[in-house]
Amino acid sequence: xxxxxxxxxxxLWVFFVLLLSLSGDLFAAEINVAVASNFKTTLQKLxxxxxxxxxxxxxxxSASSGKLYAQIKHGAPYDVFLSADEKRVDLLLAENxxxxxxxxxxxxxxxxxxxxxxPPTVVNGQGCKQVLTSSQLxxxxxxxxxxxxxxxxxxxxxxxxxLWQRLRSRIVMGENIAxxxxxxxxxxxxxxxxxxxxxxxxxxxxxxxxWHVPAELYSPIKQxxxxxxxxxxxxAANVFLLYMKSVEAKEIIKSAGYDVL
Length: 261
Known about the structure:
Helix 2 packs antiparallel against helix 10. This protein has helices at about 5-10, 10-20, 40-55, 65-75, 85-95, 150-160, 165, 175-185, 195-200, 235-245, 245-255; strands at about 30-35, 55-65, 80, 105-110, 110-115, 140-145, 170-175, 190-195, 210, 220-225. The protein is an alpha/beta fold. The chain contains eleven helices and ten strands.
């Protein structure tokens, strides 16, 4: 089936996925998937839908994109890698660990500031932004910008606002975005930059305010995935790649707080 036709008519992806997996549970397989921390909960929802459609099961491992990239370079037995950025995927392509034909931007991430202290004032609905200059702010949580794309985005925002020198001594870094979120939710930090998707998956978490950071303050968070070369002949893994391009998968991703291309 022609790839351009599949792109033009997205619902054909689902048909093709089902066509490739007509054997269903008779040949159900496991797929080892490495996923960036911010996307883990969304992937679990996708995994349930995918298993219902094909019988194939995802075995999910989650960490920062940088840590997963290092694991893959050292031979970790993953079939598919869902990064929170393009950089790590492109590095694997350059290192010939994966084939370019499988690379796909599956989600566009959004950055949000959350705080468990009240902003001093509210101006144009952006009161939470003022927490960054509040005297009550002792600790600001971000994920490590060297290994976590959302951490890099947070650092870009702080730089653009001209607050890096003022805040750098108050910044506490999590290894990944989930840990940064945990710092705020446990009140070990008064505020933190997290993925918007995390607000959807933590409805019971208490926070006083949020600031949806304008996209122009940070580089686009293009979350990219690929099939590792060792799994090229893995039918189930290839079926999963096709499923991720389906209308149904994109609806699940959008409902979790991401944009899609």
